[in-house]
Amino acid sequence: MGDPPPDPEPPSQPTSSSRNSQVSERRRSRERTRPLVPEELQQIPLDPQRNLRGWPQRASLTPNENLVFQAEDPYVNPGFSAEVQPQAYLSEGRLQASHNASLMLPQLQQGEGNLFQQLESAYQGPPADLPGQFTMYQREDLPFSQGTQHGPYMRDDPTLQFSPSELGFMSFNMELPEPEPRELAVQNAKAYLLQTSVNSDLSLYEHLANMLTKILNQRPEDPLFLLESLNRTTQWEWFHPKLDTLRDDPEMQPTYEMAERQKALFGRSGSGEGEQEMEEETAETAVPNIMEKAFYFEQAGVGLSSDESFRVFMALKQLVEQQPIHTCRFWGKILGLSRSYLVAEVEFREGEEEAEEEEVEEMTEGGEGMEAHGEEEGDEDEDKATDVIPKPTWKPPPVIPKEDSRTGTNRYLYFVCNEPGRPWMRLPHVTPIQIVQARKIRKFFTGYLDAPVISYPPFPGNEANYLRAQIARISAATHISPLGFYQFGEEEGDEEEEGGAGRDSYEENPDFEGIPVLELVDSMANWVHHTQHILPQGRCTWVNPLQKTEEEEELGEEEEKADEGVEEVEQEVGPPLLTPLSEDAEIMHMAPWTARLSCTLSPQYSVAVVRSNLWPGAYAYASGKKFENIYIGWGHKYSPENFNPSLPAPIQHEYPSGPDTIEMSDPTVEEEQALKAAQEQALAAAEEEEEDEEEDEDEDQDD
Amino acid sequence: MDAESLLLALELASGSGQGLSPDRRASLLTSLMLVKRDYRFDRVLFWGRILGLVADYYIAQGVSEDQLAPRKTLYSLNCMEWSLLPPATKEMETQTSVVKGRFMGDPSHEYEHTELQKVNEGEKVFEEEVVVQIKEETRLVSVIDQIDKAVAVIPRGALFKTPFGPINVNRTFEGLSLSEAKKLSSYFHFREPVELKNKTLLEKAELDPSLDFMDSLEHDIPKGSWSVQMERGNALVVLRSLLWPGLTFYHAPRTKNYGYIYVGTGEKNLDLPFML
Description:
The complex is a heterodimer of chains A (703) and B (276).
Chain A: H1 12-22, H2 24-33, H3 37-43, H4 49-53, H5 55-60, H6 63-76, H7 81-96, H8 98-110, H9 113-124, H10 126-140, H11 167-172, H12 181-193, H13 204-218, H14 223-239, H15 253-266, H16 275-282, H17 290-300, H18 306-322, E1 325-334, E2 341-348, H19 354-384, E3 413-417, E4 425-426, H20 432-440, H21 463-478, E5 480-482, E6 486-487, E7 507-508, H22 517-522, E8 527-529, H23 550-555, E9 593-597, E10 608-612, E11 618-623, E12 626-633, H24 669-702
Parallel strand pairs in A: 1-12
Antiparallel strand pairs in A: 1-2, 2-3, 3-4, 5-8, 6-7, 9-10, 10-11, 11-12
Helix pairs in contact in A: 1-7, 2-6, 2-8, 3-6, 7-9, 7-10, 7-12, 9-10, 13-14, 17-18
Chain B: H1 6-12, H2 22-39, E1 43-50, E2 57-63, E3 72-76, E4 83-84, H3 90-96, E5 110-121, E6 124-135, H4 136-151, E7 153-155, E8 159-161, E9 167-169, H5 178-181, E10 187-189, H6 201-205, E11 226-231, E12 236-241, E13 247-251, E14 258-264, H7 272-275
Parallel strand pairs in B: 1-14
Antiparallel strand pairs in B: 1-2, 2-3, 3-4, 5-6, 7-10, 8-9, 11-12, 12-13, 13-14
C-alpha cells in the first residue's frame, strides 16, 4: 500500500491502520461531537500494548472502541505523522465507498457537515488541497472540541496548545508546505487502490480490507495457503449475500420438486398393514427383478447406474399398481434432445385393455365420419354448380389395417415416462403405415410425446407414434434369446396356416437347460429371434391390401371401378419366428452381431454378451438359464451409407389443354372496336336492306 | 474424466447407457495410476472407449502442466497395457477420411482403399488404380483427434489463464449454478480457441480474459447439435453431442464434478442436419 514501514511498531499496525480507516469517518464525526475524547486520547498512548489486545474487539466495530482505537493511532508516536496521512486518505476513500457510506450517512449528518464537505472537496482535488490535508491532520492530533475546519485556515482555539505534536509551527505558518514525495506516492497508491472496478462497486482496497478482516476473524491455520480461495470466497460473498433462511433458494426449486416426487416413489402404498402387505408383496408380482438384470448388464458394461436402476424398479412397481398388468419388462431407454424416455413393455391382463382401445377407435372413427360427411356435402355443392369439375382419377393407396392387439407388432403395450417419479404415459398401437414411413425418415426424439415430427415423407403422427414405431422396429430386430429357451407350442402342428404366415406364438420351454456361455459367444446359431420380423408392408402377418373388408364394400361403391386396374400383389414373406441369428443378413460385409464374454479374466463366471451392430445400443446377455434384452440409445438404425432423404414426388401431370379447360382470353380493345364496327356495318347493311324492301313495298303499293 | 475420480465419474455419466464393467474399472484404476507415474503426467484422463467389431479400444489421455497443450493419447485393448499413439497430423486426417465403417478392433488391421492416381510414365499420363493401405492405428489417432477438437467440453471457470502463459486448473472452481448450467454458453471447447478472434469488440468487452479464453459451445454449427438435459431429478446436467453420438459430458451443478467420456463407434453422424 505504500505505507512507510513502521519500525518499532508491532506488525499488526499497518493492518490496524487500515481497519481504522474504515470507520475513521465515523470516528472523526464522533470526535467532533465528543469533547471528552481528547482526554481519553491522551491517556491511550501510555499503553500502546492495548492496541494489540484490543484488536479483536476492534473487529467487532463497536463505535466507542473504534473511536478509541482510531484516535489512539495519531498519538502512538508523533513521528508517525506520515502514518496519519494515509489514514486520512483512507478515510476520504471511505467517503467514496458505498459500503460504509450508508452506515456513515446518519453520522455524517449528525456530525459536522462542513468537515466532510471539506474532505470531499479535498479528495477531489488532492493536489490542490494537499497542504490543506496536511494541516488538517496535523490538527487532528490535537484534541479539538469544535468541528469546523477549513483546510489551511488557522483555528483560534486555546486547546490547540495541548498537543505534543509538531503542530506548533503549523499554527503560525500560513504557507502551504510541499508534500514530501513519499507521501505523495502513498496518496497516489491509495487513490489507485480505491478505484472501483468497472463491473462492480467494489474497489481492491475494500476487498483486501474485507479479506483481511475475515482472516483475522477466523484465524485459520495457514492463511497463506488459503489466500487464493479466500480471495474468491470473499468476493463471492460480497455479491451473494446469504439469503434468508425463511426463503427458499429459487434456483433449486425444480430440483427439490423432483426430489419430492421421487420420494413419493419410495413410499409404500397403503399404510401400516404390516405383515399382510409383506406377504402379498413377496408373492409373484408382475414387476421383474430389475436389479438382477442391471447387475448382469453391468458386467457387460451396459446400462444405467445402480441407483438409477433402482429408481426405475420403483417406477415400474408404481406402474404395476396403477394399471392392470399381467407381465412387465423394462425395455430400455431412448435418449432425446431435451428429455429421455424410459420404456416399459407390458402385457395387460385378459380383457382389460379392450375398453381403452375401443374408446380410441370410436373417437377416430367418429372423426372420420364427420369428415366424410363434410366432404360429401362439399361435393354436392360442387355438383350443383354449372361447371362440372372433372373427377380425379387418383385414388389413395389402400390403407393396410393395423394389427390387432396382442398380435404381431402390437403384441405388447408400451408405457413411457421421462424420469422415474413422473407419470407413465401409454403409447398408442402402431399402424403399418407408420412403420413404413418410419423406415424412411431419421429424426431425433425431442422428449415430448406430442411434438410433431416434421419430415419428408410426412410422418403420419406425432412423436408418440414415431417412438412407438421405432420401438416396434427395434424389438423386432433385436430381441433375442438363447436357442431352446422358447419353443413353439405343441398344439400348432400345422406349419401351413392362412397365407403361410407361420407361427406367431411361442412359449417357454420348461426343459431349457441353458447353453454354456462359451458356446453362446462362439456361434450365433445359439441365439434366436423371438419376435416376429416386420414385413416391408409394416405388419408381421401379411394382408392383401386389395382384399376388401366388409366396411370397404359398404362405403366404396365408386371404388369398384378401380378393380379393373388391380395389380397382382405378391405376398411378402419374412423369416419365421425363432430364426437363429446366423441367418441375419450382413451389413456391408460386417457381421450384424458381436458377441463377447463379459470378462475375459474370469471366463468361468462371465456372462455372454451380444451387441447388435445394426441397432447400436441393443444388448442382450445370457447366463445359465437367464437372459435379457435391453436397448439404450438414440433409437436409430445404423447405416454405413449416409442417409438419403426421399426425393419429393414427381410433378403431377397437368390436364391436357383443351377448350374445356383453357381460359378464354378477353378480347382486346382493338378487337372489340373492330367487332363493333363490323356489327354496325352489318346493322347498317340490314337497315339498307330493309329500306330497300320498304321502298320496294312502297313501290309495290304505289303500283 | 479424471482418473482420480473415475468411479464417481462413471456413475454420473452412466445415463447414456454405456459404461464400464467392474473388471475394467478395477484394471483402469490401477493401470492409470502407473501410466501417470511412468509418463510423468500432471493428470490422466480416461477418454473413453471406441467399440470395434472384434475388440474395443480403451483410450486415455495424459495432460501436462499446461492444460491446453496437446495431450498425449494412449490406447489399450485390455485396460492394463497401454501404448502411446503418435500425435495426429493433417495428412493422417486426409488419409483416413476415406475410410468408412466400423472399427475392427485390431490395431494392425489395414483398410484398403483404391484410389485413382495419375502416374507419369514417360510421356504417357494414365490413371492407375492404386490400393492404399491405411492402418487402423492411424485411423484411431485421427478419429480421437477429431473428436477432441470437435466436442471435448469443459465448463467455464474450470481453467484459468495467467498472463504468463500456462493454463491452470482453477482450484477454486465451485461449479456452475443451476441457471448457468443449462446454458450452452457456460461450456467451452477444450482446445485452442478458433473463433475467439472473430468476436466483435463489443462481445469481447464482456469477457473475462482469465476465464473466457476458449470457444463456447453456443455457436457450434449446426445449431442444436448439443442436447442439454437434466438427469437424476435435476441434480445433474448432461450434454450429449449429436455430431459424434456417444460423447457424454456431465456436470453436477454447484459441485466440482465434471467430465466427459466418449463411448461409441467412432463415426461422425453426418446425417445430423436431417435429423434435427
